[in-house]
Write a structure and sequence with these properties.
Layout lengths: L1 H25 L13 H26 L5 H11 L7 H12 L2 H26 L3 H24 L3 H34 L2
Helix pairs in contact: 1-2, 2-5, 3-4, 5-6, 6-7
Length: 194
């Protein structure tokens, strides 16, 4: 089940990437066809956000489907279906935590996953469609997560948390510099007009 889902996500991401490249390089820009827009990093960020959003949708649906059921049994079955060893420390902890969650907590987890999924899917779609608002939106959302990630990193340090915060800071800095550069380019272009 998870292998099929992962394969489908890869195919979707590849399809989206191919569409963006075809649209980008077949559409003449205002500056002329010889001037190419360097959007490779934004495309990568967009695809990453779309994948995160899709995974969060799956988490939301999964959390809501567990309400009122034997969570430990269902999660153990899922892991057996994908031939995953549930004896690892992290998965065992996850199964125990999910098993202790009430129906209300599972509903809140599902709702939170849907909200974050909506944010990430909006960011990714807007970036792929080359919308200026999406760059601002991505910078704002990414910056808003950094204080919480710092708190979590300080509270309990892990390499994954460190990688997450470094990548989010890098995304934020890249997008802010990109926005500023394009703003300066636009201002210089307007200043040179007679």
């Amino acid at each position: 089940m998870a292998v099929n889902l992962q394969s489908e996500l890869v195919v979707i991401a590849h399809f989206i990437f191919q569409i963006d490249i075809k649209v980008h390089y077949m559409t003449p820009t205002k500056q002329g066809p010889e001037k190419k827009d360097n959007r490779g990093v934004l495309i990568a960020i967009a695809i990453f956000r779309l994948i995160k959003g899709t995974l969060l949708l799956i988490v939301g649906v999964g959390a809501l489907s567990l309400v009122g059921k034997d969570v430990n049994g269902i999660v153990s079955e899922w892991l057996d279906d994908v031939h995953f060893d549930a004896a690892t420390r992290h998965l065992d902890t996850l199964i125990v935590k999910l098993g202790l969650m009430s129906g209300k907590q599972l509903k809140l987890l599902g709702a939170g996953a849907f909200i974050y999924a909506a944010l990430f899917l909006t960011e990714g779609t807007g970036l792929l469609l080359k919308k200026r608002w999406a760059e601002y939106f991505t910078a704002l959302i990414t910056a808003s997560f950094i204080p919480f990630e710092l708190y979590e990193l300080i509270h309990k340090f892990t390499a994954i948390k460190l990688i997450l915060i470094v990548s989010n800071v890098a995304i934020f800095v890249y997008i802010v510099f990109r926005i500023r550069k394009e703003k300066r380019t636009k201002q210089n272009g307007e200043a040179q007009k007679p």
